[in-house]
Design brief:
alpha+beta, 2 strands
């Protein structure tokens, strides 16, 4: 199991990320996001679909999102 750096940064541009990281040779991947599905995530998942690499998208920090939404609506938890 490897923790790879995120795609779409100066050091790891989205355009070359899949090839540079060798994603097509992985058995499966877990794509982790914290606020929304980014364009880089979609590009990565489409490429994994194309190359038949199984993947799962996991959203983290949902408790923060729920609290923020409740606060915006004037409600408490």
């Amino acid at each position: 199991m490897w923790d790879l750096p995120g795609a779409g940064t100066e050091l790891f541009p989205a355009e070359t990320y899949v090839q540079h990281m060798g994603i097509r040779w992985f058995d499966a991947c877990i794509v982790v996001g914290d606020t929304r599905v980014r364009e880089e995530d979609v590009t990565l998942m489409k490429e994994m679909e194309r190359t038949l690499v199984r993947f799962m998208y996991v959203r983290t920090k949902m408790d923060h999102q729920v609290e923020d939404n409740m606060h915006e609506k004037g409600r408490s938890i």
